[in-house]
Amino acid sequence: MSKVLVVADNPKVTAELVGAAGDAVVVESQSAKAIAEYAKSNGFAAVFAAATMDGKELAGRIAIALDSGIITDAIAVDSNFVTTQSIFGGSYIVKAKVNRGIPVIAIRPNSVEPAAAVPDAIKLDGNDNSLVTIKSTKAKQKGARPELTEAKIVVSGGRGIDGDWSSVEKFADSLGAAVGASRAAVDAGWCSHDMQVGQTGKTVSPDLYVACGISGAIQHKAGMQTSKNIVVINKDPEAPLFEIADLGIVGDLVSVLSKAAELINARK
């Protein structure tokens, strides 16, 4: 693979982007214009960014500044910058390639093995005042749990939790996991939209995804079915999500999660 410019996100995700790139230079900047100018002046063959909410927004502005094509939510990239994507709710796996300008590719976190070593990031100065005006900013409050789209383990609750998150959260905390939710849980007002996993929420690809009381509508599958290991806990043995589960447990989720958290904490 030719030399690639990687836009730093955080150490873990940046290591994944470098792992996908091969020969990579890492830059740190929120200025799309500065990144685009650096990519053009130094002959980079592609620009990689993380397919997070902020990463995709920046990638889009970089593509505009480069007058190039963009591909988002890639789960793999080959040496010719042909990407692999899971689309239409995971019904199809497709190959795609940018055919104009320097390709800008946003790669889904946890989909690529991270590189063992990451070069130091080059800080680029610059601003995008001609493209956007920022009127105010507010720092996001960081919780004790990992960010949902970047977590190695995600535990999600659905309609089956009946509004009680206590067992889900205790189990998630025993694993050091992020907590997600189905659309049904969000629509019921049990949690905020930023926890939603699915086609109209966030897409995750953790090493382990535990679905608690989630039946498995196609829109939810679209957001988590590329997870490496899927565990489903549901009292309904006919729940559609069991079809893609690596391990299925039919039973009362409160009892299952409480016992599991107890055993995990005991092993610690």
How would you explain this protein's 3D organization?
This protein is of the alpha/beta class and 268 residues long. It contains seven helices and 13 strands. The strands form two sheets. It has an eight-stranded mixed sheet with strand order 6-5-4-7-3-1-2-8, sandwiched between helices. 43% of the residues are buried. The model has no long low-confidence stretch (mean pLDDT 90).
What features would you highlight for this structure?
268 residues; alpha/beta; eight-stranded mixed beta sheet; five-stranded parallel beta sheet; 7 helices; elongated
Summarize the structure.
The chain is 27% helix and 23% strand. It has 268 residues and is α/β, with parallel strands linked by helices.
Oligomer: single chain
| Count of distinct strands | 13
Number of helices: 7
> pLDDT below 50 for ≥5 consecutive residues: which ranges?
none
Which sequence of strands runs across the widest sheet? 6-5-4-7-3-1-2-8
The Cα radius of gyration reads 20 Å
Helix/strand-derived class? alpha/beta
Order of SSEs: EHEHEHEEEEEEHEHEHEEH
Q: What integer is the average pLDDT?
A: 90
Rounded to the nearest angstrom, the distance between the terminal CA atoms is: 42 Å
Residues in β-strands, percent? 15-25%
Q: What would you call the shape? A: elongated
Largest β-sheet summary: 8 strands, mixed
The proportion of residues forming helix, as a percent range, comes to 25-40%
